[in-house]
């Protein structure tokens, strides 16, 4: 318990220092957002839940439930893994210092011409994804074992993937003139 409290406080201090540095650098950069890869964890300190995301390229982010932009259905699974982390992709808005669009990272288990199955520890039976739902990716080019980031949706007890992308380590969009 002491380790979790010390880690939580350390992450909180790191996050505050990083926020100050990010707000200073936001004035000098012209881009609006970055797509980053990180490791997300679940921690509890007192009655407050935290969702720290550690990245190698941009520092650490410490999120609380009220900081999240969406009610991510898979967070209940993350709560069961207290202290363990999962890989995620997310969008960091540099000007607002805000994280949005957090996506899980899994692997293509089996790829076919117009559909695929993604493996992820939260979904032991794999998740089906159709080419019709993800027209931006040519499924013929997907390779078994390839890392993909995806958003999870649910309707009437059925899980589906409304968005999926190949994993990149980071992406900074170019500014149009």
What does this protein look like?
It is a single chain. This protein is α+β, with helices and mostly antiparallel strands and 177 residues long. The chain has two domains: 103 residues, no CATH class; 67 residues, OB fold (Dihydrolipoamide Acetyltransferase, E2P). The protein is 17% helix and 46% strand. Strands 1, 2, 3, 4, 5, 6, 7, 8, 9, 10 and 11 form an eleven-stranded antiparallel sheet that branches.
Topology (SSEs and partners):
Blueprint: H1 2-26, E1 33-41, E2 43-45, E3 48-54, E4 60-64, H2 75-79, E5 85-93, E6 98-111, E7 115-120, E8 123-130, E9 147-155, E10 158-166, E11 170-171
Q: What is the CA-atom radius of gyration, in angstroms?
A: 17 Å
Tally of strands: 11
Q: How many structural domains are formed by the residues?
A: 2
Global shape: globular
Given helix and strand content, the structural type is alpha+beta
Number of H/I helices: 2
The ordered H/E elements are: HEEEEHEEEEEEE
Largest sheet: 11 strands, antiparallel
State which percent range the strand residues make up.
Answer: over 45%
Mean pLDDT: 78
How far apart the termini lie comes to 52 Å
- Give helix % range: 10-25%
**Spans where pLDDT lies below 50 across 5 or more residues:** 1-29, 171-177
